[in-house]
Amino acid sequence: MARQKPLKLYRNIGIIAHIDAGKTTTTERVLYYTGKKHQIIEVHDTKDGKASTTTDYLEQERKRGITIQSAAVSAEWKGYQINLIDTPGHVDFTIEVNRSLRVLDGAVVVFDGVAGVEPQTETNWRLANQYNVPRMCYVNKMDRMGANFTHCVKGIKERLNPKAVVCHVPIGSHDEFTGMADLVAGVAYVWQSDDKDSAWETVGLETLADRFKFASAADNEWIRRIPELRQELLEQALALNEDAFMEFVENGKFDPAMLKECIRKGTVSGEFVPIFCGSSFKNKGVQQLLDGVIDYLPYPGENGGIGMVDPDGKVIGTQEVKDDAPSRALAFKVINDQFGTLTFVRVYSGVIKKGDTLANVTRNKKERIGRIVEVQASATKDIEECRAGDICAFVSMKETETGDSLSDPDHPALLERMRFPDPVISVSVEPKTRADVDKMSTALYKMVKADPSLRLQVDQETGQTVLKGMGELHLEVTIDRMRTELGVEANMGRPRVSFREAFGVPVELVYTHKKQSGGSGQYAEVKMIFEPAAAGTGVEFSDEVVGGRIPREFIPSVEHAIETECKRGQVAGYEVVDFKARLIDGKYHDVDSSALAFEIAGRAAFREAHRSSKPKLLEPIMKIEVVTEGDYLGTIIGDVNRRRGQVTDQGQKGNQATVQGFVPLSEMFGYINFLRSATSGRGTFTMEFDHYSEVPPGLVQKLMEAEA
Ligand SMILES: Nc1nc2c(ncn2[C@@H]2O[C@H](COP(=O)(O)OP(=O)(O)OP(=O)(O)O)[C@@H](O)[C@H]2O)c(=O)[nH]1
Ligand SMILES: [Mg+2]
Fold first, then answer.
1. According to the model, what pLDDT value does residue 410 have?
2. What is the pLDDT of residue 196?
């Protein structure tokens, strides 16, 4: 079958934002206005479990009214196929944004018109920078009391990108919000009502000032400034085409199609970020946003191809997005449901047909593609093939995990990977009933496979199963989904901080393992250097033995010993990270040396080296933002200091005060209760993991006692 739709008519986009900005609400409107569904469901009407928005279909999402996992939907708009991924805003589920951005070509960043730029907006914005994803801004909730376009635009320019440009100006705010002035088209859209099917009038920009007199001076000011803002927009956009710019400067003329082309070019290259506005809830601006998506966000490959890397992650080439090339795809999400496993892939090049065999280059395995499906949130539809640019899912894959590269077995290639966040909180997990005992570890294993921001560990000393994740909500939701999706019930212990350990100073040592017990003995000697390495570098083992002083076949045993033994450090039994283990010399015995003897020597060498290296205990430090009324500022700041924290910034958000800073996670449990009582219930806060840092030596013992 030939390609049905040219690549240029595709848009793969993500909707990203801080929690509650209105991503799911906007997605519902997109599905409605593109004719994909006939009824709009509101996020806050799903708690009784009777109704569900298309993308928040999980029981846990409906109950809480928040998005937990990203969901893909597709829709047609003006002949374009828009594949859209609605992502969660809660910081605990940031992996979902991460992996979606990795495979998307563009993003719409949604803002709450009252709150403006919020912490997760900044985090997601940075992620989009990392993956080089062009984006546009949509200032939503202009109908809310306190909606403040000035504050939002200022926040976007100051905290996200100074090159952001207002393309749509709101007409009024709060209950006077009636539409927007489109500075690109040079007209304004004025809605007749809040109804989802309400028509809008298209009127001249010059008519607005006489027609509208708003209660808010700022709203009137935006209308007054329209000619000046339009001039700025035209200059900034047309500057991307020299001829068009000269024509505009000299004769004041421009071609509207050229103007759009310039904005598109700038947006795709990241030089330009268009700002739109609206109220998804009151059904204003969503169709205009869709027009913006097709006008300004890139089609697959327009922003360059996908990087191909060597096993160390170094970029060695680029694969263009086209059908006429070896098949190459990236698996970005795996979900388990009652029908089995669905592996979501983004195809970058070639055509993959049902029945094809692909190479999983990451794992050096072959994988047959039995079924290919198109996914519409919770529903699937079988398709025969998928092509460059497509996002779809393969059914029942056996070997493939999130982040793996799949390709034509004759042309294997590793594609640029995604980065997974570090889990910082852990809980012990126990089966609820006898019936759950056998099933629990398999079920947990499945949950962890589907979510790379979870880790599973069995505590060697206590035999307890420990689940690590991004936050309390993340772990709670995981255990609950295990119940609803896999039918296994478990109890969770108290959440604990995931401490880590590190080497304090480099250590060189020789360790000899010698045992004579009657018959054949055991003998192995290793000489090693352990060096602390930069944060985030993990564990690196290097074999620097020369002249066969240790036979080749025993070296993997030493490496394995280090990899296993580093899971338990000498300070308090936490994993030791970020060090280099160099095996530089050793001795062996023809009869008495064995793989086991070298493994034992490696483990003992590690323990001794770590003990004598002035080892450090590391703790996760969280970046926090507290929003409160100004009266409580002193209390909040004093408390941050008491929690061993550090205030880095103070600001203003509308009429609220904000405090930003860093606080160790171990001091943050129960913070919400403190905040509620300290601010009469009016303060809110967000926190996210920022970095690991050394626990002051004097505090180690106290912290460990508290943990026990
Ligand atoms: N007034 C007003 N409320 C809105 C608007 N858009 C969304 N909301 C409300 O804001 C709340 C959150 O909306 P969602 O669409 O769930 O937000 P989200 O960004 O998907 O949230 P997460 O997925 O949990 O990050 C809901 O109660 C919506 O009805 C809007 O334009 N105006
Ligand atoms: Mg949502």
1. 96
2. 95
Q: Which ligand has an atom closest to residue 57 CA?
A: 2
Q: Is the CB of residue 141 below 6 angstroms from any atom belonging to ligand 1?
A: yes
How many angstroms does the Cα of residue 402 sit away from the middle of ligand 2? 22
| Confidence (pLDDT) at 338 | 64
Low-confidence ranges of the chain (pLDDT < 70): 338-339, 460-461, 518-519, 654
d(CA 85, CA 377): 9
Q: Please compute Rg for the chain using Cα positions.
A: 28
* Res 518: pLDDT: 67
**Residue position matching structure tokens 């095996």:** 583
Residue of the nearest CA to atom 14 in ligand 1?
Answer: 22
Q: Which pLDDT score, from 0 to 100, does residue 706 have? A: 81
Classify burial at 155, counting beta carbons within 10 Å of its beta carbon; exposed 0-12, middle 13-18, buried 19 or more: buried
Angle between helices 242-251 and 226-238 (to 10 degrees): 140
Cβ of 44 less than 6 Å from ligand 1: yes
- DSSP string for residues in 509-546: EEEEEEE--SSS-EEEEEEEEEEE--TT--EEEEE---
Q: In what order do the strands lie in the sheet with 80-86?
A: 71-77, 80-86, 10-16, 106-112, 135-140, 273-277, 164-166
Q: How far, in Å, is the centroid of ligand 2 from the Cα of 110?
A: 11
- Point out the ligand nearest to the CA of residue 28: 1
